[in-house]
Design brief:
This protein is α/β, with parallel strands linked by helices. The protein contains twelve helices and 16 strands. Strand 4 and strand 5 form a beta hairpin. Bound molecules: zinc ion.
Length: 370
């Protein structure tokens, strides 16, 4: 637990206070209610420092006192401190669906309090920006606590600055949503597969320090968490596995190339919609898609030596037999030792992983909670 909380040490003395604040919040997020004395041990600072940080957090309404410990140790019981879930709310938006723009108000524990959304109704480009801005306005009005920030998860390539470089399906190039939304509330933007990975890291159960999320919807994206940190690469394009060319003679892809990985995954998934009702045909198409995905990710997983694989996407896809086909295809292409450790499972959050990941991004950027 101590190693998970610590993360990177403070860079300079003036950062120390902010760092300690983040460490206390991260410790409470990961470990639940804790006494001040225990916090001091967990984050390796003096009890006086913890008391001072907790005093500030209490004044900010971010933590609360939660009664006293049952006497686990010698001495008088200590007062427990915990994150106050309603200390701040986050507005989260998920743009990964072609049908709707999903939105929610999420508390500091990752609980979805209110959902609201808009039909996409074929909106792309500027008209989609208008839909997002409108939904943001509504969500900001729905928050029942001071708003910590707005988190937006989008398909496509998000630059480190938060500008959406290209999102082909949304007809967006160089879109600065923070500028479009305006106002004083911080806006953070993340790729949808990376959002799903952040949701697992921040709100998932289990000790998910190393994991790969594969997001399968109209495209294929991956989110990598290594040693407890989301890796997006130097340009922010890390994980764009869907447009790796598997077969240059393959079918044309929306990116302009031929035979990208995602064409081999999305074609059978699209075909299954036309065969709805024919369970045998649908299963065969899901197996075909899963096998193609497994072939595409085997090298990545083997190179990273990460066997914890979480698949995110439509609820009817992310199930057996699709998951079994992914697992079998990866196992068939990797060493036995690796295949034995391989665990391919669905996201813990049904269809809310991307939305929760957008909220998790805000918790990380604004408070250091992850
Ligand atoms: Zn492509």
């Amino acid at each position: 637990l101590r190693a998970r909380i610590a993360g990177t040490p403070s860079a300079s003395p003036e950062d120390a206070r902010r760092t300690n604040r983040s460490l206390v919040l991260r410790a409470l997020h990961l470990g639940g209610p804790t006494s001040r004395a225990e916090l001091a041990k967990l984050i390796s600072v003096t009890p006086a420092t913890v008391s001072s940080v907790v005093r500030d957090l209490l004044a900010d309404g971010l933590v609360e006192e939660l009664g006293r410990t049952t006497a686990r140790t010698v001495g008088k019981p200590a007062t427990m401190v915990g994150i106050r879930p309603d200390g701040r709310h986050v507005a989260a938006i998920d743009l990964s669906s072609d049908h709707q723009v999903a939105g929610a108000i999420v508390d500091l524990n990752g609980k979805v309090l209110i959902r609201s959304g808009r039909d996409r109704a074929d909106a792309v480009g500027d008209s989609l920006i208008a839909v997002v801005v409108d939904l943001c306005d509504e969500l900001c009005g729905l928050a029942g606590a001071p708003l910590l920030g707005i988190g937006i998860a989008t398909p496509g390539y998000v630059e480190p600055s938060g500008i959406i470089g290209t999102a082909t399906r949304l007809h967006w190039t160089g879109v600065d949503l923070a500028a479009e939304i305006g106002g004083d509330v911080p806006v953070h933007v993340v790729n949808d597969a990376n959002a799903s990975a952040l949701a697992e890291l921040t709100f998932g159960d289990g000790d998910n320090r190393d994991l790969v999320v594969i997001r399968v919807d109209e495209g294929v994206g991956t989110g990598l968490v290594l040693d407890g940190v989301l890796h997006v690469g130097r340009s922010g394009g890390g994980g764009e596995l869907g447009h790796v060319v598997i077969d240059p003679q393959g079918p044309p892809c929306e990116c302009g190339k031929r035979g990208c990985l995602e064409t081999f995954v999305s074609a059978p998934l699209a075909a299954r919609r036309d065969r709805a009702g024919d369970a045998v045909a649908v299963d065969a198409l899901l197996v075909e898609a899963g096998a193609a995905l497994g072939r595409g990710v085997a090298i990545l997983l083997s190179a990273l030596d990460v066997g914890d694989v979480i698949v995110s996407g439509a609820v009817d896809v992310v199930d057996e037999p699709f998951l079994a086909a992914v697992r079998d295809a990866v196992a068939a292409r990797t060493l036995t030792d690796f295949a034995d450790r391989l665990d391919v499972r669905p996201t813990s959050f049904l269809d809310a992983d991307v939305l929760l990941g957008a909220a998790a991004l805000v918790l990380d950027r604004e408070l250091g909670i992850r």
